[in-house]
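Fold this sequence, please.
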Amino acid sequence: MKKLLITKRGSTSIIVTIFAMLLFSIIVVGFVRLTLSEAGQTSNSDLSKSAYDSALAGVEDAKVALLKYHECLNRYQEGGSDNNCKEIIEAMQNGIKNQDCNTVANVLSRTTDEQKGVTIQEVKNKNLDQGRGADMMQAYTCVTLQEDLSDYRSSLSSENRLRIVPIRSDKIKELKYVNIKWFSDTNYAKLLSNGHQLSWSENASLPSGQYSLVPPLINASFYQADKNFKMSDLITASGDNSTDQGTMYLRPSKNGTNEIRASEVSRTFDKHKNELFYVK
């Protein structure tokens, strides 16, 4: 009887030990999986941020390339003969025409690599990055430019109320109208969804209360000139149905018009004849 009791105690100890080892193994495996998962997420996050930064760098380089290109165009229009500008103009125009990925690099004279593209950040001392510097180099491989856009979008604020949009095209004579949009029912619905207690004033009257919503009024100015012009040309009206400049004050209204004729624009040259345009 005593021998049987000892045997039962030994079996119980073995079972407890096995379950303890299984529990410990599960905890260790779970911890390892969690550690590897966190390491993978961290690596993916670093790679995605690096790729995003590279894309932003490509966009910023494209802006610099466009500024240099237009600066060179202005120099040539003023009678300049800079060889560097000639190369920049040719590289930009050929790149836009062929949608070349290396247009920005060619304009800015950046060194490119067939596999890595244009490197924008390279860690020289790997000890500063625990040996991971070589794997986290940032580079953009392809940036294409397009100057003839279907539309231009931007945001205005109380701090920055002005936008200058240059319209330069080889087919400028085919330009018949300019379409301006800055407020819609979507904007009104968005304000209501944010908890604003506002009422929509659809007519042309001014707001009558503190909760009355009136679309923003904008000042749209228009200037045109030939390649070679004098500043005095911009203060001269060309005729009754055309002008070199115009200033229109636009206010959205349910009963407004959706088209302003050239003759109406030309009259805005005279500030005494200028008036508020109600548009829809």
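Residues 122-126, 131-135 have pLDDT under 50 and may be disordered. The first strand starts at residue 118 and ends at 121.
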